[in-house]
């Protein structure tokens, strides 16, 4: 099922001076942490997740129960939030999520494309086309689809605008990672897309930026460890000068800053929040 289910009715106006966001990949990991970071800052958020497994991915996706728990935590943190079940490969479903933000809170100020998946573990020429396609369609296509769905709503705000379109890239956008070719290609595509969007948005008041995390303690990193035959994802910590895995909340705090009005001088930026991995 796609949609907000029982949350379809209006849930109230955003808090005084508050802003409104749509966040994809919201059930867990960096997406969930981003919903909470925004809520703590008084945002109203449509928390979007597929909330279902994909037959071409060998590990479980976030669940509806996890998505509902994130929404509850966001409310307890002082923000407003509703869950919205949608697959980022479905542009019409994302338009529905944007419409939910506009219907509930009168407009949209930020769209954050955080949804991502991982597969690989073999050289590109041995990877199945289906596995390659799901990575490209979610990690890159999902960002493009959210841009199509959300940017018109960001531009619908009256001038002077401070709309924000944000995406998760990766250190993999610039660092070649063996047996993860599709993921590297998708994330490099995100970086190029963000730069192009920044140029297209120009002086509209809406900016486009991305954050490139390093090895962050998420389900995707756990799957990467499995693909590399590592016993646990903590083994990736040695790659980063900080000597540890990053926390999803650390990446979310960077996204929350970029979502705010105070980041207006930044557009077309790919911000490294990677513990020094890209050095």
TrEMBL record:
**Entry superkingdom:** Bacteria
- Carries keyword Oxidoreductase? yes
Primary enzyme class: oxidoreductase
Does the keyword Oxidoreductase belong to this entry?
Answer: yes
Transmembrane residue ranges: none
Q: Which SUPFAM superfamilies match?
A: NAD(P)-binding Rossmann-fold domains
Query: What Pfam families does this protein's entry cite?
Result: adh_short_C2
Q: What is its EC number?
A: 1.1.1.-
Show the InterPro entries listed in the entry: NAD(P)-bd_dom_sf, Sc_DH/Rdtase_CS, SDR_fam, SDR_subfam_2
What keywords are annotated for this sequence in UniProt? Answer: Oxidoreductase
Q: Which is one GO molecular function term here? A: oxidoreductase activity
The record, for CDD domains, names: SDR_c
Q: Which family does it belong to?
A: Belongs to the short-chain dehydrogenases/reductases (SDR) family.
Known PANTHER family for this protein?
DEHYDROGENASES, SHORT CHAIN (PTHR24321), ESTRADIOL 17-BETA-DEHYDROGENASE 8-RELATED (PTHR24321:SF8)
> Which NCBIfam families does the record cross-reference, listed alphabetically?
SDR_subfam_2, SDR_subfam_4
Q: What is this protein called?
A: (-)-trans-carveol dehydrogenase
């Amino acid at each position: 099922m796609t949609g907000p289910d029982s949350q379809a009715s209006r849930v109230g106006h955003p808090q005084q001076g508050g802003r409104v966001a749509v966040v994809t990949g919201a059930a867990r990991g960096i997406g969930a942490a981003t919903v909470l970071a925004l809520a703590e800052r008084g945002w109203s958020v449509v928390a979007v997740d597929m909330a279902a497994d994909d037959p071409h991915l060998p590990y479980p996706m976030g669940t509806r129960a996890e998505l509902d728990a994130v929404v509850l935590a966001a409310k307890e943190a002082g923000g407003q939030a509703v869950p919205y079940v949608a697959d980022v490969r479905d542009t019409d479903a994302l338009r529905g999520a944007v419409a939910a933000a506009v219907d509930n809170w009168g407009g949209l100020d930020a769209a954050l494309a955080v949804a991502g998946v991982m597969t690989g573990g073999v050289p590109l020429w041995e990877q199945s086309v289906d596995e390659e396609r799901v990575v490209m369609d979610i990690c890159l296509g999902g960002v493009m689809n959210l841009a199509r769905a959300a940017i018109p709503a960001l531009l619908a705000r009256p001038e002077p605008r401070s709309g924000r379109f944000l995406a998760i890239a990766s250190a993999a956008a610039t660092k070649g990672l063996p047996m993860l070719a599709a993921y590297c290609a998708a994330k490099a595509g995100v970086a190029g897309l963000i730069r192009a969007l920044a140029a297209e948005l120009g002086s509209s008041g809406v900016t486009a930026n991305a954050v490139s995390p390093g090895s962050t303690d998420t389900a995707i990193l756990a799957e990467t460890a499995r693909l590399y035959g590592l016993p646990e994802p903590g083994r990736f910590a040695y790659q980063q000068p900080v000597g540890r895995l990053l926390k999803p909340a650390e990446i979310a705090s960077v996204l929350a800053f970029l979502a705010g009005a105070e980041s207006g001088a930044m557009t077309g930026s790919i911000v490294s929040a990677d513990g020094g991995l890209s050095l």
